[in-house]
Design a protein that fits this description.
Length: 220
C-alpha cells in the first residue's frame, strides 16, 4: 500500500519545488521512495504469476524512475517531478517498450500498459501486425469490459494522414494511424492507501496482458 505521508510529500513538493526545500526534506523523500519501491516489489511478484514475461528478478529499485527532471531543453525549470513513475517491462530487464506503468501523483494516479510512442522498426512491425491480424487486436480492445476499464483505444493521438504503405480507406486505418498503443485506468488516492492495492493493480494489469501479448508478438 501507499502511505499517506508519501502522497503528502508529493503535495508539498508541488508548492516547494526547489533544491533547498528538497534537500531539507530529503529524509521524507527517501521514505516515500522506499514506500513506492516496496509496493513495486509486491506488484512484480504477483504480476509474474499473470504474465510470465515479467521477470521475477526485476529489481524494484530500478523500476522506480528518477524524480530529478531533465530541464536542459524544457521551459519548465522546476528541478523535480511531482510524481513517482514505475516502469515494469513485460519481458526482460530493460525498461520501456511493451510494459506496465504505474503513475503515483495525488489526484492524478493511474495504471497503464502497452507501448508508448514506438519508433522505427517497432512501429513498422506493430502496424504490420495490425494490418495482418487486426481481428485479434479488435477482439481485445473492443471487448465491453476492456472499454469500460480503459476507454476507446482508437481515441489516442493519431497521424493526420495515413502512414506510408497504407491506404486511407483501409478498414483499420484508425488503428494504423495510432502513434502509441497504450491504455490507462485512473487510481484514486483512497484506493492507493488500501492494503490490497497491489492486488487491485495486478488485477487491472491482467486485463492489459492480452494487449501486451499482441504487441510483443508484433515486435518479436
Amino acid at each position: 500500500m501507499i502511505q499517506k505521508q508519501t502522497l503528502t510529500f508529493l503535495k508539498d513538493l508541488v508548492v516547494n519545488n526547489n533544491r533547498d526545500w528538497f534537500l531539507a526534506n530529503k529524509e521524507r523523500y527517501d521514505e516515500a521512495r522506499e514506500n513506492v519501491i516496496g509496493l513495486t516489489g509486491d506488484i512484480i511478484s504477483k504480476l509474474h504469476l499473470i504474465d510470465a514475461g515479467v521477470n521475477p528478478d526485476l529489481d524494484p529499485k530500478k523500476c522506480v524512475m528518477r524524480i530529478y527532471r531533465d530541464i536542459r531543453f524544457s521551459k519548465n525549470k522546476t528541478p523535480y517531478k511531482n510524481n513517482f513513475g514505475v516502469s515494469i517491462p513485460s519481458s526482460g530487464l530493460r525498461l520501456g517498450g511493451v510494459e506496465y506503468y504505474l503513475h503515483i501523483q495525488p489526484g492524478k494516479s493511474f495504471i497503464a500498459g502497452g507501448y508508448w510512442m514506438p519508433q522505427g522498426d517497432h512501429l513498422k512491425a506493430i502496424r504490420q501486425e495490425i494490418d495482418y491480424n487486426a481481428a485479434d487486436l479488435k477482439k481485445i480492445i473492443d471487448d465491453k469490459e476492456f472499454i469500460n476499464l480503459f476507454g476507446e483505444f482508437r481515441s489516442q493521438e493519431q497521424l493526420k494522414t495515413a502512414p506510408r504503405d497504407y491506404d486511407a480507406d483501409n478498414e483499420n486505418i484508425a488503428l494504423l494511424k495510432l502513434k502509441s498503443f497504450i491504455v490507462t485506468h485512473p487510481l484514486t488516492d483512497k484506493a492507493l492507501l488500501k492494503n490490497n492495492i497491489a492486488d487491485e493493480i495486478v488485477g487491472l494489469c491482467s486485463k492489459i496482458y492480452p494487449l501486451n501479448v499482441f504487441l510483443k508478438t508484433a515486435i518479436a
